[in-house]
Amino acid sequence: MPVEATGRSAELTVVLPTYNERANVPLIVEALRRALAGVDWEVVFVDDNSPDGTAAAARAIAATDPRVRVIRRVGRRGLAGACIEGMLSSSAPFVAVMDADLQHDETLLPRMLAALRGGDADLAVASRKAEGGAIGEGLSRTRAAGSNLANALAQKLLKVSLTDPMSGFFMLRRQVIDELAPRLSSQGFKILLDIVASGEGRLRIVEFPFVFRERQEGESKLDTLVTLDYLGLLVSKFFGDLVSVRFLMFSLVGASGVLVHLVALRGGMLGLGLEFNVAQTFATFVAMTTNFLLNNRLTYRDRRLTGFAMLRGLLTFYAVCSVGVLANVGVANLIYENEPVWWLAGTAGAAMGAVWNYAASSVLTWRKA
């Protein structure tokens, strides 16, 4: 049934980042209609080009309900980036972010809006940890334990006072996101933590308890690699955004490659009976290959390569890393000749190699579409 426009601009924009949530689209729109009766609202589906037709399902509803908008992102992915893009697309004075999978309690939205309208808060957060809130059946034991650890780290390292900095359900004044957007990372999954940390204690925050519900349709998009991504965000914010989250992830993957190299070297010599030089070459390519695969899945997950593009990317990564070795050795030798301190020269060479590999692979291997 068509929904007539009120003629008034929206007071609240609800941003729903989506990927393969087609079945949940009509359910969440109907839930918002019930919860926000009497409020001038709109909902923006920010879809990462879902193959299941999520964007098309949202557009079908938008054809009869002007409060529904769709942003289809092609060539870029990531929850944080989708949230930022959706919030910045709003002209409403208040913006909310929540999941489209119905695990967040949409009936809290009017209370959160009332708190911000009152002028005493800049950010309203739905918390599973506040008194009266609960994780419920929405998270497995493993994910619940990981969430607890992540919360503890955020509170300890960044001095974040939130009870649930991992929450993905919040509302804020749009002027806040306008101010903080240049400092936010488009990578990762925990945009709330980024917002609060970037606010540097200036934001007035109010929390509302809620019970995290079970997903009704579809599957969770979170995987174990999200933990590494989250740790990268923590470190980046701890050091005042001096180093990007993506570079930290790239460096972490590179460090893991050293262990892979040593294991492959030992295995090549003992298991395959290779001479050292041959085993060293074998181990180098094994390490570069694993580094490429991890970076493709984690560091550049928003530009992830598939099919033939993945093969092309692997070959360019081999070339980039080969030049990186020359840069590493060259810088290390240059410094050692002038200041014969082995650890200083070695560290400088490794840093130069890492910076080269990161910069070159960003342009050549995982270049933006």
Tell me what you see in this structure.
The mean pLDDT is 83. β1 (12-18), α1 (25-35) and β2 (41-47) form a beta-alpha-beta unit. The protein has two domains: 12-224, Alpha-Beta Complex (Spore Coat Polysaccharide Biosynthesis Protein SpsA, Chain A); 245-364. The protein has 369 residues and is α/β, with parallel strands linked by helices. It has twelve helices and seven strands.
Give me some keywords for this one.
369 residues; Spore Coat Polysaccharide Biosynthesis Protein SpsA, Chain A; 2 domains; 12 helices; 52% helix; elongated; Glyco_trans_2-like; glycosyltransferase; Nucleotide-diphossugar_trans; GtrA_DPMS_TM; Glycosyltransferase
In short:
With 369 residues, the protein is of the alpha/beta class. It has helices at residues 25-35, 54-62, 79-88, 109-117, 141-157, 174-180, 191-199, 225-238, 245-270, 276-299, 307-338, 342-364; strands at residues 12-18, 41-47, 68-72, 94-97, 123-127, 170-173, 205-209. It folds into two domains: 12-224, Spore Coat Polysaccharide Biosynthesis Protein SpsA, Chain A (Alpha-Beta Complex); 245-364.
